[in-house]
Design brief:
The chain is of the alpha/beta class and 309 residues long. Helix content is 34%, strand content 20%. It has 10 helices and 10 strands. The site of adenosine-5'-triphosphate has 12 residues, from strand 2 and helix 1.
């Protein structure tokens, strides 16, 4: 499963974020090579989502730096990072409930619009020009809309028949799992170079989890660079080129999935004791993402309890 990573696409150095007396992310270093799939695991509250927020420009670090494709992007807002090719999904899922499935995906593509984003020399004319183009819709605008629509349909088709029959339905009418899929579709519409997925299978049953695993695997197969937060370790073990383990905001281990799974410090921090939930036995993972020993009925969060200290 391990591939030779390309040149670094994401480089995080000494990243730190404090909330009052709590250091949620503590001097974290992390590199993701082009084409790599790196998973970030760790107990609840380890700082994983905070790390994503810092990388994706939704939060600002107290110290440290983030470089994307060799360029220092520390402090850039999320929309600038999105325009550079960095897309993320949210742990609790975020879609535009009143927009249709198709429009949700098209929203993801908006950073790539050319024809409908005129850049006149006088900044005040920008919104006026955009309004005029929206009203008149000249041929280049219509052509671009058509192209984006075709792309959106292709992306939605990645999810089989889950979303395609529901293109015109408002997102709020979708099942929870479909909303999660839609969020990923929207992120993909940005044509990202780096995709950050925060627990994409949270709340999904084993069948849905297996489907998601196949989709992530196919995205990886197309060369997309992915940074994944995931609690379902079977999935992590099957997909990851490398695994980074966080605890209390710091990186406590990093390496190949099997090596990390066998690391006593990881087992101690993550499980509290040995041989629970298959962390020490990645090869025994069920191919369908099931077998989440110790999880709830959805096979969710099998091993998230922080070790007693
Ligand atoms: N905006 C905030 N204000 C104060 N504390 C915060 C804030 N965001 C996160 N925290 C705290 O920072 C720590 C790390 O939270 P974070 O959500 O990053 O953890 P996580 O690893 O994603 O956990 P989980 O697996 O439960 O999603 C937690 O103690 C959390 O309560
Ligand atoms: Mg989180």
């Amino acid at each position: 499963m391990t591939s030779q990573p390309g040149k670094p696409l994401l480089e995080v150095a000494g990243l730190t974020r404090r909330f009052g007396g709590l250091t949620a992310v503590n001097g974290l270093d992390l590199t993701v090579g082009e084409g790599e799939l790196v998973s970030v695991i760790g107990p609840n509250g380890a700082g994983k989502t905070t790390l994503f927020n810092l990388i994706a420009g939704l939060d600002a670090p107290d110290a440290g730096a983030v470089a994307f494709d060799g360029r220092d992007v520390s402090g850039l807002p999320a929309e600038r990072l999105a325009a550079l090719g960095l897309a993320r999904t949210f742990q609790h899922g975020r879609v535009f409930g009143n927009l249709s499935v198709l429009d949700n995906v098209l929203v993801g593509a908006h950073t790539r619009l050319r024809a409908v984003r005129p850049r006149p020399r006088l900044p005040l004319l920008g919104p006026l020009a955009e309004l005029a183009l929206a009203l008149v819709r000249p041929a280049p605008v219509r052509a671009e809309e058509e192209r984006l629509r075709a792309e959106a349909l292709e992306i939605v088709a990645l999810f089989g028949e889950r979303l395609t029959p529901r293109l015109d339905q408002p997102a709020h009418s979708l099942s929870y799992a479909n909303r999660r899929r839609l969020e990923i579709a929207r992120a993909l519409a940005l044509r990202p170079r780096l995709l950050l997925l925060d627990e994409p299978t949270a709340g999904m049953n084993p069948t849905e989890t297996a489907e998601m695993l196949a989709i992530i695997r196919s995205l990886k197969g197309r060369g997309l660079t992915i940074l994944l937060i995931e609690h379902k370790l079977d999935l992590v073990m099957q997909l990851s080129d490398r695994v980074v383990v966080m605890d209390h905001g710091a990186r406590i281990a990093e390496g190949l999935p099997a090596a990390v799974a066998a690391d006593p410090a990881v087992i101690e921090a993550y499980l509290g004791h040995k041989a629970v939930g298959g962390l020490a036995e990645p090869d025994g993972a069920e191919p369908d993402g099931a077998g989440q020993g110790g999880g709830n009925q959805h096979g969710e969060r099998p091993v998230v309890a922080r070790a007693a200290r």
